[in-house]
Amino acid sequence: MLVTFYLNNVRVSYDVRPDEYLAETLRSHGVKSVKVGCNETSCGSCTVLLENRPAMSCGILSASIEGKHITTVEGIQEEAARIAYFFGEEGADQCGFCNAGYALTIYALKRELKNPTDDEIKDYIVGNLCRCSGMQSQLNAIKAYLKEE
Amino acid sequence: MTYDKKKFRVVNHKTHSIDGVGLMQGRSFYTDDLAEQNSLVIKILRSPHAFAHIKSIDVSEAQKLNGVALVLTYKDVPHVSFSRAGQGYPEPSPHDKFILDEYVRYVGDEVAMVAAIDERTAEEALKLIKVEYEVLEPVLDFETAFENKSVIHPEDGICEMFPIGFDPKKNVAASYEMEVGNVEEELKKSDVIVDETFYSQAQAHAMLETHSSNARLDEHNRLVIYSSTQTPFHMRRIMATTLGLPVSKIRFIKPRVGGGFGGKQAFHGEFFCALTTLRTGKPSKMVYTREEVFGASYTRHPMRIRMRIGAMKDGRINAIDCRSLSDTGAYGEHSLTVFMIVGSKVLPLYNKVDAVKFGGQVVYTNHVPAGAYRGYGAIQGNYALEATIDILAEKLGMNPKEIREKNSMREKETSPIFEIMGEGTKGTAMIMESCKLPYCIKRGAELINWKENWPRKVVGENKVRGYGMAIAMQGSGIPFMDMGSCTIKLNDGGSFNVLVGATDIGQGSDTLIAKIVAEELEVPLEDILVYSSDTDLTPFDCGAYASSTTYISGNAAWKAAQKMRARLIKEAAAFLGVKEDDVEFDGKLFTAKDKHVSLYDLSVQWLYNKDLHQVSVTESYFGHVSPPPFMAAYAEVEVDLETGEYEILNYVTVTDSGTTINPMLARGQVEGGVVQGLGMACFEDVKYDKKGNLLSNNFLSYHIPTHKEIHKLTSEFADSYEPTGPFGAKSVGEIGIDTPPAVICNAIYNATGVRVHTLPITPEKILKGLKELKK
Amino acid sequence: MIVNKYYRASSLEDAYSKLQENPRNTILGGGLWLKKIGQSHETLIDISSLGLNEIKDSKNEVVVGSMVSQRDFENSPVVKALFNDAIAFSTREVMGVNFRNLATIGGSIMGRYPFSDVITGLLPYDVELEFYPKQTMFLEDYLSYKGKLNAILVAIHIKKGQGKGFYKKVKTTALDFPIVNIAVSRVNGQYRIAVGARPAVASLALKAMEYINSLKNPSKEDFAKAAEMAVEELSFLDNKDASKEYRIDLAKVYVRRGLEEVNK
């Protein structure tokens, strides 16, 4: 079946199966920044923005996003570079597999929560697993990014 | 030569990862991102039984399905035994695996392979394969494996490459014994003896990128394999031998890897991609599901470790006896080497003993196989040793910090164990040229306020805080066995390609190598262009394991950079018509008194104008010693005495890893290791049902630490310089993971009086212990 | 999971008639557990454009559309205002934000998942479920309803009242299912106690509630006794996450603490 939606503000129409999830749709159309770490909505590597809100694309049925806006990291390249700067400052980057998903979650966090507490930040990002870092460096990087005007 | 750290420009200074921005922006260079668009998709039919013999297998229906390109069973693959483990040659692991076999030895073991035009077709085809199994009695308790009437490897054609104690008819994959002095005699002299047994679980690596590989034939009809691997050169060798191909016909490329932690130090799917592409001529790919990573790759070796330690009344430890039993599951990857490290990288911590003994067996069971995992052997041994040391301290009425200070390794000391025990073979004697362990212990105690806080503080009606500590050591590569190499090539404009076999698996080795080269050549970091791990293009490297990258590959890069520097100066001297000794190079200009020429001009001229030639150098390095990094770790936990639940409020580490080439990444390695170790200590429980089905096989049932569990990490480094390391560096990749099981065990004991002897240390076990104490 | 057709319903009536067409047709909630459970379906019926994603506030109740996402639910000032944020708090304990933006309140309830934080969190309050075709049912009755209800959940009606609530999810890590979860309320002077993930789906501890509500000024000891009664009347079992005994110990402690907390 055909589904039409906005991918990084570009209108696209893809032929999808009724049981196809968005992570598969995006990757099969060359959007390889969307990483599949578990394919069962547990790890957050495949996070995209659905109508500007972070959501795991392995949990979004492609057929369900008719007319909606999807943002991948390709849609926030400059902000991703800013976030990378703060990750670099804290030494929070390692293997990078979770990073694109993190970037989208952090980007949305900055726009959704004003002056969040540490606990609110943690709650916002807890659905993005990382096995490399010790978490603390990421938290510090995110806090520094949030402070930036 | 000892360098003055203050003079470093790049090394030991904070720099961002050279690939940090690109990765955050989602650049697609992981294995599956690079698969050919129309690759055949490979899926595996996996055993539903823990142990069975395939009586018959009928794939005719699967082969008939539209879109199925190839179906393979054990009848269709070379019957050549090998070890999946990516290790040096000859491998110290038993050759006990076939690409496909007529026996299946754990739930999840490979029965048949399907390659089809897409995933759904491949999955449909799997359902059409009819298998008749003769179900055999499995061994699911590793303490009953030895000489069990069920023999897990009854087949012919399996072997050891050199004596490793391999005795498959008794379910023994490997065994080892060693003794220094006479432990029984010394224990008789001890004033106090403690005798404790600990159990550790089959921790899962849980790297975010699942095992992935893909294959294609290039225009020379050579097999090109992209693989998410830590050991591309070992893979090439093992695949060539097993498939009967010349090494020259295979090219392994390691793209960006999404985490390894030892889990990618072995074959996962590469053989199936190779066979599919060789037989169909078409590109193919295989990506493990998360469930397959948990249930059909490999885990940490679960162990039972019995520690007997004797000491004199004054607190001097005089004898240690360590007996271990290790469960390697269905196959023996890394069985001996992991096992030996329980002794070799743990027991030398207390080097003032009169006698020390280590030994035991690695047994086969019908569990998911065990293999390499960050801190292998060391974390299991550290848990048993360091918890037992606390028990001994209490018996002696000593502060746990004091007993460690009195007995542990110091600078310029050694242990006889270094010479006796190596990686599957004899070891190498060495003196600790750098060991700031006493400082680490002292500084860590200050950071946790040990003096005031130890052992516990009551903070509420049912809330108690407990404080625990442990010390640890690791190694830096395997002497005389691990080799790394580096080629540096000058480009016009003055940038340098640095080609290394060293395998960046996310730990940041590309950045680390760039920094070492930039420091030596005095050029800007952005002029160093690192390309790593492609068996056609880069020189050899053993791979990323055994904490070898900084020390071995880093030394190779340093040597190459030194050679490049000397070469440039020599050529510049000739150009300027002066003596080499008179030339100074600051990264941009070659200056000799009143004459000068820029690197930029020379580099352009050599390629385009005059005296045309390519300037390039290659160097390699292997270790003659394996200088251990050291660590002291402390934790503060808060326990709810009514429920056993606890929070880790602060985890303090002070590490001696020599010079930290990249201080931020070194901290990242330590903290990442600590959190993985905390996962093993506290959360990551492995559950099987009675039939051998792994129940903890996804992220909802296997719990790795998240942001909400980590409250505070306090991480410092000792000022230390290892004279044999690159710019004074030692390893840092594994040491972080070693301490948490013992530290948390000790902290929980100090808070509650409950000693948990089985990992993970769950609230349920603590509460059970508290109830028993009340009785 | 294999699904043959995807159907975007134009009205509740349309969705309902599609649902009747084939027993293998199903209403799509958030679509998360659908995949995990892996059951195949003939047609997925999408009801996301039927205006069921609103939260309405009135004098006596809050009405939550079944397609409201868990994230919108927990962030709603109207929901937060209920019983000192106790209900919204329970939803926040589910996975991460990138999950809760997809998961729907209706999906969580209709699935009657034993591990549900949403169900346990709502159970100690006066919660009625509104279905199409027109039918209402108390949450506790739906939980004990035998078989599959052939109706579409439209909205959840949460009755307002004076008082506060307590919620505790005992877990290994933040992304874990509960080992056991406990919700206690005191609304308009009446205590209610719910315990879920035992590992069975949440139940009210009716005897314990009756006992504690019969007392005028219950003491600490009375709360402890009520907690004892609660674990006695409810069934607990072993599973891979915890033993029966440990679940009982936890429930006892947290029911007591919950009662003390809501009494403050």
What does this molecule look like?
The complex is a heterotrimer of chains A (about 150), B (about 775) and C (about 260). Chain A is α+β, with helices and mostly antiparallel strands and about 150 residues long. Chain A has helices spanning about 20-30, 75-90, 100-110, 120-125, 135-145, and strands at about 1-5, 10-15, 45-50, 55, 70. A five-stranded mixed sheet of chain A has the order 2-1-5-3-4, covered by helices on one side. The model of chain A has no long low-confidence stretch (mean pLDDT about 95). Chain B contains 19 helices and 27 strands. In chain B, the strands form six sheets. A seven-stranded mixed sheet of chain B has the order 3-5-1-12-9-10-11, sandwiched between helices. A five-stranded mixed sheet of chain B has the order 7-15-14-13-8, with helices on both faces. In chain B, strands 16-17-25-26-27 form a five-stranded mixed sheet. In chain B, a hairpin with a 2-residue loop joins strand 22 and strand 23. Chain C is globular, with a radius of gyration of 19 Å. The mean pLDDT of chain C is about 95. In chain C, helix 10 runs antiparallel to helix 11 (about 220-235) and helix 11 packs antiparallel against helix 12 (about 245-265). The N and C termini of chain C lie far apart (about 50 Å). The chains are: A alpha+beta (about 150), B alpha+beta (about 775), C alpha+beta (about 260). Chains in contact: A-B, A-C, B-C. At the A-B interface, helix 2, helix 3, helix 4 and helix 5 of A face helix 1 and helix 17 of B.
